[in-house]
Design goal:
- The protein starts with 8 loop residues before the first strand and ends with a helix.
- The protein is built from twelve helices and ten strands.
- Helix 6 packs across helix 8 and helix 7 crosses helix 8.
- The longest helix is centred in the middle third of the chain and has 22 residues.
- The strands form three sheets. The protein has a five-stranded antiparallel beta sheet with strand order 2-9-4-7-10. A three-stranded antiparallel beta sheet has the order 6-5-8, with no helix packed on it. The chain has a two-stranded parallel sheet with strand order 1-3.
- The chain is an alpha+beta fold and about 290 residues long.
C-alpha cells in the first residue's frame, strides 16, 4: 500500500475590507507585506482561486506542478485553482498581481475564456507584442480601481473592477492563441485529450496518430505549430509531470511510480527521470519529503 500525502489547499483570504473575491496588488507589495512567507521554507501548496502576475521588470521564478517557470518582462504567470505551486525567494521581478475566485467572472465571459482557465492551460503566457502595452495599462487601471475602495458606491466599484478584469482576460485569451490553423489546432487539442487519458500506456507518436485517425506527419505538424515541440517531447513531459507529482506530492516509491507510468523496469525509469529532471527519483523524493 502506497501512503499518499496531500499538498495543502488554501482558500481565498484577502485583506479585511476587500470585496467580492477579487484582490489586486503588486508583486513587490506582496513580498514586503509577507516577510518570509511563503518562500521560507518553500513548501508546495494549492489554492482554490486563480492568481496572475504580469512581470514588468526583472525575472520571476515560480514552481507550477513541480516545474520551475521563468517569467520575463511582458509575460504573465497564471496559477489556476488546484495547481501544485511553490514560491521561490523574492528576486528582481516587479509587476501587478491579481487574485480572483472563479465565480467573480460572469458566465458568458467564463465561457469565452474557458480554454485559458482550464487546468491544463499554459502556466506562462507570452502575449503578442502588439497587445502587451494595452494589457499592461489595463492591469494598472484595475490596480488603481482596486485601491479606490470607498471613493464611489461599492456596487459601482466592484462592477468597474470586474469589467476591467474581464476585458483583460478576454484580450489576453485572444492574444495568447498562437495557432493560426484551426484544423491543426483541433488535432493538437484532440491529441492533448488523448494524452491525458493514455500517457501511462501509450508512449509513441504513431500510437496517438492511430488513435486520432491521422498520419504521424499531420500530428507532428499540429503539435509543432501549437507548442514548438516534437510529439515525443510532449509525451515525455506529461510522464515526467506525473512522476514528479507521485514522487513529490504523494510520496510514492520509484518502483511504484515506474510501474504506474508503464516503464519496463525501475532502472529504465531512473534513467528517464534523471535525463529530464537532473536527479534520480530517490533524490527527488527525498528533497520533497515532509520534514
Amino acid at each position: 500500500m502506497v501512503e499518499k500525502r496531500q499538498v495543502p489547499l488554501y482558500g481565498f483570504q484577502p485583506p479585511v475590507g476587500t470585496p467580492y473575491g477579487l484582490e489586486v496588488t503588486t508583486l513587490e507589495d506582496f513580498h514586503a507585506q509577507h516577510a518570509d512567507w511563503p518562500w521560507n521554507p518553500a513548501v508546495p501548496g494549492r489554492a482554490t482561486f486563480h492568481y496572475m502576475i504580469l512581470v514588468t521588470e526583472g525575472e520571476l521564478r515560480h514552481d507550477v506542478d513541480h516545474v520551475t517557470r521563468v517569467v520575463g518582462p511582458g509575460e504573465w504567470l497564471w496559477v489556476r485553482p488546484g495547481h501544485a505551486q511553490c514560491w521561490h525567494q523574492p528576486g528582481t521581478a516587479r509587476g501587478p498581481f491579481i487574485l480572483f475566485e472563479p465565480d467573480v467572472l460572469r458566465s458568458d465571459t467564463a465561457g469565452l475564456i474557458s480554454a485559458l482557465t482550464a487546468h491544463d492551460a499554459p502556466a506562462v503566457l507570452a502575449p503578442h507584442p502588439d497587445d502587451r502595452a494595452w494589457l499592461h495599462q489595463t492591469a494598472l487601471q484595475l490596480l488603481d480601481e482596486h485601491r479606490a475602495l470607498g471613493q464611489r458606491p461599492l456596487a459601482v466599484h466592484h462592477a468597474l473592477r470586474r469589467s476591467l478584469l474581464e476585458a483583460l482576460l478576454l484580450r489576453l485569451a485572444r492574444s495568447a492563441d498562437a495557432s493560426p490553423n484551426p484544423v491543426r489546432r483541433d488535432t493538437h487539442d484532440r491529441f492533448l485529450d488523448a494524452l491525458e487519458l493514455h500517457f501511462r500506456e501509450l508512449h509513441r507518436a504513431k500510437d496517438y496518430a492511430l488513435l486520432l485517425g491521422c498520419s504521424v506527419r499531420t500530428l507532428s505538424r499540429a503539435v509543432q505549430d501549437a507548442t514548438g515541440k516534437a510529439v515525443r517531447e510532449v509525451i515525455n513531459e506529461r510522464r515526467l509531470l506525473e512522476a514528479r507529482r507521485l514522487l513529490g506530492d504523494a510520496q510514492w516509491t520509484p518502483q511504484a511510480t515506474a510501474a504506474h507510468l508503464g516503464f519496463t523496469d525501475t532502472a529504465n525509469f531512473g534513467r528517464f527521470f534523471r535525463q529530464y529532471a537532473g536527479l534520480t527519483p530517490g533524490a527527488y523524493a527525498a528533497r520533497n519529503a515532509t520534514p
